[in-house]
Structures are given as C-alpha cells and as structure tokens.
Amino acid sequence: MTTPLLTWYDEQKRPLPWRMNPSPYAVMVSEAMLQQTQVATVIPYFNRFMAQYPSVTDLAAAELETVLKSWEGLGYYRRARHLHACARAIVAIGAFPTQAVEWQQLPGIGAYSSAAIASIAFGQPIACVDGNVTRVIARHYLVRDDVSKSKGKARIQSLASEFLHMDRPGDHNQAMMELGARVCLPSQPKCDQCPIAKSCVTHIEGVNPINLPHKTARTKVRSQQLHALLVIKDDRFMIARRRAGLLLGGLWELPVTERVPATSKRITAVKHRFTHIQALYHLHLVEHYEVEADVYDQIQWVRSDDQGYPFTKVYYLQKPFIEQTLNNYDMLVR
Asked: ∠ at Cα 60 (59, 65), nearest 5°?
C-alpha cells in the first residue's frame, strides 16, 4: 500500500525549502514553525530565520529577545523559546541526537517532533502522527475510536507504525502529512485524487469520510476584558516586558491590567483571539502607572517608530491608535 503513496509523493510533493536541504537543523526549525501554523505562512519566516541563523551554533549564540523578534508574527512564542533552548542544548552536547528518544530529552520536543526529525533527517524507521496523519489513518482503516482519548491515540499510532515504509521512513511521513494537507481534507476530501483510495476502508464501505476521525469537542472559548494603558512622557510612551513563564513571556506590550484605572481616558478597544480566549483590550490614556511586578520584569520609554523590540500582536493592533493619541496628546490632556 505504501508504494502508490510514495510514487504520488515523488511526483506531487511541494518544493518546500526545508525539503531542499533536509539537514537536522533545517528540519528542527521547520517542525517548530509548522506546529499550529500553515505551510504558506511558514515559508517566508523559515527563509528569513535560516538566513539570520544559518546554523544551530548561530541560533544558540543569539539572545532570546533577538530570536523572539525574528519570530514576531508567527505566534505561539513558546515554540521560539523552546527552539532557542533546544539549540543551546545541542551545542552543549556537541552533536545532534539521531534517535527520537534522544530528541525527546531536549526542550519542547515531543513525540511527534522527535519522530519527524529522526525519520526525515536520520532515516529512523518511526512513524510520526500529527493531525493530518491522524485523519488519513482514521479514514483509511475506518477507526471509530475517539482519537482525542488514550485508546484512540494508541490505535492511530499503532496503525501508522504498521503502515510505515521501513526503507523510506522520512519520505513516508512527509507523504502522509502531504496527503492529509492536500487530499484527505477535513471537510472536502478529494477521494478521487487519493493514491491509496483503493485500499481505504472508509472509501470501500461507502462511509462519509467527513465524519472521521471521531474526537471530543474542543474546549469552549471564554471571553476576557483587559485594559491596556498608554502612559506618555514627553514624546515617548511606556512599554513593559512580560516575565518568562507567562503567556507571551519575553514580549513587549503596553502595560495590561484587569482593572480599569481610576483616572483614565478610554481611547478605543481592539479584539484578539488566543487559543481558548477571546480577549477585548480597552486602550486607556493614563498619566502614571506602576507596572505589576509579578507580570513584568522591565519597562522602557519608546517612540512609536522604535522597532527593536519583540512586540505582541495586540501591540500592533493598538499602534495606529497610539500614534493618533501621541499626535493629539496636548489637546487630549487639556
């Protein structure tokens, strides 16, 4: 069954930059970026990142804040922090691990990433399972278990391992991911274009593939009201860096609090969606504010054109209103 899959992959695979030179470092960087981010979004970030940090040694030598700035816009910044820590660990060891179990000892490397890197960069015969692969396997073998539960996950991993092409494990894993991303789509699968449709149990038995895989409903999104504070001094305003370990740790933003300041002038509000939070940030002009020490570890006074800091995405949503307020500050405080 794997032969038609690999034949299709050899003919149809996308010329992605990390496939052109599948070095352990390039694969490590690409896998970090591709977590929860679409390929089209990753490509320009990957190319810029590799140009800025062409080797694991270069990445390890860089300051974390510089790396976060390079990551700016990709989101899920914990990936960047883990990637940086991983590079430093590899440099300290003196070599790249070659086995998945060894990769899992490094910061931020889980079962999927370790299997992907070990199979693609080192040819270890181990199946990697992400959302795309889960969907392909669940449909191909008509798996009715809940794939969000332990039993379902184990079943998918077992079948993926049985299906693995032992001579070309890296290409096989990429072919499975490619198939899930381009053919075996969640809501509009292209079964007529699938290279393994002839052996697909779901297809053979006439089951609607969009009903698979089965999984528990996602956690409901909750709403949160927050207040961002614009404190102006001369022609500069205050920004604060969030402490490491917190959400968006290491990034800079206007100071944020959950309480409305007693004396403030509301300017506007912007929305931003996190994974399980729909946040509404009210922007206030205030004369003075002492940042919360348990949230922020440093403050700076900057101009609106200062770009040397890794900012949160919310900051960029607020930036036009910040600039407008700076331009009209004298009138606003009268």
From this structure: 75
Quote the radius of gyration of the chain (alpha carbons, Å): 24
**In the annotation, is 31 catalytic?**
yes
Enter the pTM of the model.
0.85
Terminal C-alpha separation, the chain: 76
Segment 112-116 long-range contacts (CB within 8 Å, at least 24 positions apart): 113/31, 113/32, 113/35, 115/173, 116/27, 116/31, 116/173
Among residues 11, 31, 102, 253, which one is catalytic? 31
pLDDT of 14-55, one tens digit each?
A: 999 999 989 999 999 999 999 989 999 999 999 999 999 999
**Domains of the chain by residue range:** 2-211, 222-332
Given this chain, do its domains 2-211 and 222-332 carry the same CATH topology? no
| Fold assignment, 2-211 | Endonuclease III; domain 1 (1.10.340)
Task: Compute CA distances 166 → 163, 196, 280, whole Å.
Answer: 9, 18, 50
The CATH class, in words, for 222-332 is: alpha beta
